[in-house]
Amino acid sequence: MTFTHRHLLGIEHLRPEEIVTLLDLAEDYVTLNRSAEKHSDALAGLTQINMFFENSTRTQASFELAGKRLGADVMNMAMQASSIAKGETLIDTAMTLNAMHPDLLVVRHPHSGAVDLLAQKVNCAVLNAGDGRHEHPTQALLDALTIRRAKGRLHRLSIAICGDIAHSRVARSNIMLLGKMENRIRLIGPPTLMPSGIGEFGVEVYDDMAEGLADVDVVMMLRLQRERMDGGFIPSEREYFHRFGLDAEKLSHAKPDAIVMHPGPMNRGVEIDGELADDINRSVIQDQVEMGVAVRMAAMDLLARNQRKLKGAA
Amino acid sequence: MSTTLFTNAKLIDPEAGTVTSGAVVVRNGKIADVLTQNTDLDEDTLAPVNFDHVIDCNRKHLAPGIVDIGVKVCEPGERHKESFGSAGLAAAAGGVTTMVTRPDTDPVIDNPEALEFVIRRAREAAPVNVLPMAALTKGRAGREMTEIGFLLDAGAVAFTDCDHVVGDTKVFGRALTYARSLGALVLGHPQDPGLSAGAAATSGKFASLRGLSGVSPMAERMGLDRDIAMIEMTGAKYHADQITAARALPPLERAKQNGFDITAGTSIHHLTLNALDVADYRTFFKIKPPLRDEEDRLAIAQAVASGLIDVISSMHTPQDEESKRLPFEAAASGAVALETLLPAAMRLFHSDHITLPQLWRAMSLNPAKRLGLDCGRLAPGAPADLVLFDPHAPFVMDRATLHSKSRNTPFDGARMQGKVLATYVAGKSVYQKQ
Predict the structure, then answer these.
(1) If you measure CA to CA, which chain B residue comes closest to A10?
(2) Confidence of residue B42 (pLDDT cuts 50, 70, 90)
(3) b vs e for A205-219, b when ≥16 Cβ sit within 10 Å of the residue's Cβ?
(4) CB A195 to CB B212 under 8 A?
(5) Which chain A residue is nearest to residue B214, measuring alpha carbons?
(6) Mean pLDDT of A96-112
(7) Chain segment A245-293, per-residue pLDDT in tens
(8) pLDDT at residue B114, as a whole number
């Protein structure tokens, strides 16, 4: 087994063979999750705490379910309602939790780098469930697993990531992961939603959907945050949908068997046409949700194994 | 009449642009004579019996003390971060003989009473010269100008709202015009406030990879362009606090060629570090404006060497651990630098980017000239504010050794070269290396 990390903070520090190890293990969990008895004891006796400093329904549910299926004791903490509101710093919160001896800490935070900071201060394994605009590693891994299952491989594919790249941690993690696995990456979106220095990322950049989608194997749509829709970054919702929303016509430029992905939650009629999102022949959006649980089980399993090794060595 | 002889020294003369072996005679706190190889270094003149004190400099470098424009001392308001006592010790240990302090305290130094408090505290507690700046607008809010006349009378040496840009050009124009009528120097912070709002890093690949909100260096150019137009309109005496981007250099050069009364500074951090040093969200590297790309750093160093940029400042900004141990975007900006200014500047000397006389022109002569002070020179008549240092002495920076109450230095653990051996203010020793 090749996966030597203590934490899963981002894709940036993973090697390609580590990504493959994790995805292979996730395949086993897909099988388990489809069986009648959806249970393993991989995390039995371990405590998992989900700390979400930012609202989340899907990701938190996915992590919670993943932990429970592996037999961990799972606790959810809604951090907005808690001591943070009373002025406690992130570090103090981390130290307090650390004193309770958790084994796995799943953290989402609105600030880039906050999860790295927290990981420096605790003894347990930390999983980044999204930090600011920085990384969302389990999302990129579940996307990778979805692509690998749909396309039969995870290399030499042409993959378009469309929409609000600038504010998206999903985009950053995906660009890194798919780049490491030697795919051709295209970014499509209005220039106001492209990050600075994008020319140095080793990707192709388009501001026209028809051009950018030509002959791609995978179309990955990103969510456009409501607060960015009116006037600030784009003129209006309807102009955005007209130019960058995915519909059947725009998709016709991609390969006939191209798949459509979306990390959810979707804005139907803004970045994606409602009917297309439900088209089971093209859309793998529901598969992504399923792979999410399996990938998170695999990630937590690997981190727990590494932790046992560390403790055994000590 | 007390006389001291500093003998056997390497003298850095920023006016002549030379480093020569020689001696300095100090009488009653002022430099009385500078003796170099070329003049009369004969044994009779240098006979110890002629002096009350003789200091053998051991062939180390003797230079005018550093005049540091833009030091933040956190009195009043945040004395736990830095006091005049602690900042003064740090300055003395760093070879800084004159601290020109910032008014961005809490409350802001925007009235004569607050300024008098600062002057009194500085006199009581700091072993080095302290010259305070005052705010240009009340509360640094950019709406009404301060009592520039009264503040000048009370001892303010310049006027600045620090990192708050006066956004309303009508207010800024009137303040500049009023200041000009009194001959007061105004420090600007060239930065377009809209473009730089909320930025924690310089835009580009690194900021995007780290997911940090970035600002284009163009915001600095735009800010400078605007300020230059305001100087042209008002005829004001203006100093740009920090020029850090290569793109801001051509307009600065043109403004100087046009004969405007403009000078510019930069910070030691922008001269010695770049954007990549932030690495994995190291908040001690978060400063304002943010660290730039390596190309900018080199262009700024070149501009200091050529004299286009006049002044190097420490931009000493103490922050306690609580303000820095936060996610990068939420963490406070600024770094302490009084004690690391000289060793950091030695990096530029050792890398052959800036010579020692050029460095002392920017750290001592030019800031003194700009403020109308007679220090900053190694010449008869100038105050005997001196620093004795060894530019080659190597050490590993340990922030626990700093005299500042706050120890937010980006150089913690860095290998550096250049140690201050002794510092003198008006001929009196204020620091001796143990």
Answers:
(1) B210
(2) low
(3) bbbebeebbeebbbb
(4) no
(5) A196
(6) 93
(7) 999 999 999 999 999 999 988 999 899 999 999 998 999 999 999 999 9
(8) 97
For residue A308, indicate whether it is catalytic.
Answer: no
**Chain A: closest CA distance from residue B276 (Å):** 14
Are the C-beta atoms of B281 and B210 separated by less than 8 Å? yes
In order of B77, B80, B107, B368, the CA distances from B73 in angstroms are: 10, 10, 12, 20
The pLDDT score that the predictor gives to residue A2 is: 85
What the block records as the tokens of B407 is 């120890």
Subunit contact A114:B206, Cβ cutoff 8 A: no
Write the residue in B207, B211, B322 that is nearest to A89 by C-beta. Answer: B322
Question: Could you give the ipTM of this predicted complex?
Answer: 0.89
Q: How far apart are CA B370 and CA B309, in angstroms?
A: 13
How far apart are the CA of A70 and the nearest CA of chain B, in angstroms?
Answer: 32
Cβ contact A294:A145 at 8 Å:
yes
DSSP state of B134: B
- Would you give the distance in Å from CA A191 to the centre of its chain? 23
- Catalytic residue selected from A7, A21, A59, A262: A59
Rg (CA), chain A: 19
Amino acid at B243: I
Is A59 considered catalytic here? yes
> Counting one residue from A and one from B, how many pairs have CB atoms under 8 Å apart?
70
Predicted confidence at residue A81, as pLDDT, reads 61
Q: Is the pLDDT of residue A87 over 70?
A: no
Residues of chain A with C-beta less than 8 angstroms from the C-beta of B216 = 196
Q: What is the mean pLDDT of chain B?
A: 96
Type of residue at B188 = G
Are residues B204 and A198, on separate chains, in Cβ contact within 8 Å? no
Measuring CA to CA, how many Å separate A225 from each of A80, A164, A167, B400? Answer: 20, 8, 9, 45
What are the residues whose beta carbons fall under 8 Å from the beta carbon of B321, sequence distance 6 or more?
Answer: none
Task: Determine the pLDDT at residue A24.
Answer: 98
Q: Are A47 and A118 in contact (CB under 8 A)?
A: no
Answer whether A41 touches B (CB < 8 Å): no
Q: Which two tokens stand for residue B58?
A: 């051991």
Instruction: Give residue-wise pLDDT tens across range B150-169.
Output: 999 999 999 999 999 999 99
B313 min Cα distance to partner chain A (Å): 30
Query: pTM of the predicted model, to two decimals?
Result: 0.93
Touching check for A172 and chain B: CB below 8 Å? yes
Nearest to B210 among A113, A166, A198 (CB): A113
To the nearest whole angstrom, how far is the Cα of A127 from the nearest Cα of chain B? 17
What is the DSSP secondary-structure string of B48-102? GGG-SEEEE-TT-EEEEPEEEEEE---TTT-TTT--HHHHHHHHHHTTEEEEEE-
How does residue A225 score in pLDDT terms, banded at 50, 70 and 90? confident
What is the pLDDT, as a whole number, of residue B38?
60
Is the Cβ pair A112, B327 closer than 8 Å? yes
